[in-house]
Amino acid sequence: MSPSTARAPEFDDLAFRRTLGRFPTGVTIITARGADDRPVGLTVSSFNSVSLAPPLVLWSLARRSTSLEVFQTVERYAIHVLASGQASLARQFALPGDRFANVDWSFNADGVPILRDACTAARLECFNRSRYPEGDHIILVGEVERCEHNTQMPLVFHAGGFHLTPGHETP
């Protein structure tokens, strides 16, 4: 018996993108220190937990990203989970230009840029454990070395736009 293979998709890229857009995600900004010692950061919504022991998370980055080389090679990075009122910050880190302009940040003890005012929902500081090429993205797995959170509600991305989360949690 020959090995099974996937059938060709019965949809186009736009249909797939719109279908994926029906799943709401949180919004993060991921930061690292580039080889030139300058801070690098970008907005990412493809973030997920992997394991509690050891504490692992994953996110993915397009192979065409100008930040790919940095995140393929850095030892550590930080993941900032944005709060519901931070859509403008998410947009700033999604567009070209000086993404750190007018943002309160500093390097942590490991040399990773930490966004002080952006970490209003949560922050995870990670060791760059693994990278897996899949399709047009690279999946990065981070081993969480430090984390913190507070009670701010997260920013949500759904159907191509940012949305505020409800002001309360359900048990």
Automatic annotation (TrEMBL):
Gene Ontology MF terms: FMN binding; riboflavin reductase (NADPH) activity
Superkingdom field: Bacteria
Gene3D superfamilies in UniProt: Electron Transport, Fmn-binding Protein, Chain A
Domain (Flavin reductase like): residue spans on this chain: 20-164
Pfam families xrefs: Flavin_Reduct (PF01613)
Oxidoreductase in keyword set: yes
UniProt keywords, alphabetically: Oxidoreductase
Family the entry assigns: Belongs to the non-flavoprotein flavin reductase family.
Protein name as catalogued: Flavin reductase family protein
Organism of this sequence: Verticiella sediminum
